[in-house]
Amino acid sequence: MTAEPPVTVGGAPLRPEDVVAVARHGARVEIAPEALARVAATRTLVEGLADDPEPHYGISTGFGALATTFIAPERRMQLQASLIRSHAAGTGAEVEREVVRALMLLRLQTLATGHTGVRPVVVETYAAMLDAVITPIVREYGSLGCSGDLAPLSHVALAAMGEGRVRDAGGVEVDAADALAAASISPLVLREKEGLALINGTDGMLGMLLLALHDLSVLLDTADVAAAMSVESQLGTDAVFAADLQALRPQAGQAVSAANLRAVLSGSPIVASHRDPAVCTRVQDAYSLRCSPQVHGAARDTADHARLIASRELAAAVDNPVITDEGRVESNGNFHGAPVAYVLDFLAIAVADVASISERRTDRALDPARSNGLPPFLADEVGVDSGLMIAQYAAAGIVSELKRLAVPASVDSIPSSAMQEDHVSMGWAAARKLRRAIDGLARVLAIEVLTASRALDLRAPLHPAAATGAVRDLVRTVAGGPGPDRFLSPEMEAVTALVASGAVARAALTTTSENTTTSEGTR
């Protein structure tokens, strides 16, 4: 799928970019030799405990509310297989391939720590499935984000056993057994502890968090670019973005966004045209223009906090029970998804607010009472043409949904497993709604970029800044300029693709000085 270098699992903790490379771009995985040695050593310990007449949770007992039930040795392989089959109970639409691959990679990382007690063949099988691009079909609903992402991880484990359905490298749905055979991978026959080790983790919600942070880094740079285009095209001032003013409130993200706005607007003839107080008598711009760095910057700081939590989780070995460095087998609560769930919900709030201020900037450009000389709705022949009127409706509808998606999932809890699992994180649900919110933000920003590009054209013969002009020219490769009404939806979709790919941010920020500060991953 890709020419990217392979990602090593079982050495240093995975980096966020490693997860994106494997999940989204199909990078291959390699197991560090020392990881297989650790795995083999802890497996020897588990096999010794399996022979102990005293019960050990997950090794010689049932699970959850059945943890006190002793399982005879001859029934333990059936116990592990039954666990996976019964827990592979997801329902709803298929989860995206990149999410499933992220989940598989993160579970593989935990298996490779040697803290789970599986055999080396289990580690090797998961790596082989990733490299063969065998993607188990995982369903939308089934995880409560506690005791791990149980149902999603169980669907993956079921496929490793040669059961259930998967997508092959070409995206065709086939039986797992056939896909494994085609890749010369032997189905797993699970032994003591292994079924439990394959499903007790926060891997699904963490994978979606890492993918969202990658996308959000691009979108926050794009939000700065879009805001600059709106400020310029609506004859706003860049004076409020001055570094000394921003330094009076030393918020890190705000400083980054303000620096981006200054750089993107640098040298703008449009901005220069109304600097003279005799030409422009407005004292100050509306909040949606003037306060863009404050809102975008707060979102940046929120994303930085989420990255910190994600980095800690990437260094974790989440399982229950877990094998400690001293060789103890201990039950624990590290599978609880609260740390990840909280930041997923926090990001959904930030995403909704960035989209909200973007939509307000778009609306100002379309209102002749507030746009400082632009025609109503940027229409060609007002009355006959509606211009971008309904594009703003689309943005408003998306923002309304993003506000609903900002309602936190992590404050909810529904007890399960006969009250043994009586408080859960709902982190999987938080991650699912954040993915939808990220998509919505890209669309709202695309509508602002499309609107601002047309507004800049309508300021002719004045020219925009080099950076905003570069974005306007990029937009013109997929969307026409001012003129009579035409079928607008394809243009909106095309600009959305430019936004989501990072092309809009790159067009502006690579035109500015090399010293421009940007978010992670956009240079």
Notable characteristics:
single chain, 523 residues, mainly alpha, Fumarase C, Chain B, domain 1, Fumarase C, Chain A, domain 2, 2 domains, 3-stranded antiparallel sheet, two-stranded parallel ribbon, 20 helices, 53% helix, disordered C terminus, histidine metabolism, EC 4.3.1.3, Phe/His_NH3-lyase_AS, Fumarase/histidase_N
3D structure, described in words:
Belongs to the PAL/histidase family. It catalyses: L-histidine = trans-urocanate + NH4(+). It holds the Pfam family Lyase_aromatic. This is Histidine ammonia-lyase. The chain is mainly α and 523 residues long. The protein folds into 2 domains: 7-201, Fumarase C, Chain B, domain 1 (Orthogonal Bundle); 208-509, Fumarase/aspartase (Central domain) (Fumarase C, Chain A, domain 2), CATH 1.20.200.10. Helices cover 53% and strands 5% of the residues. It has 20 helices and 9 strands. A hairpin with a 5-residue loop joins strand 8 (322-323) and strand 9 (329-330).
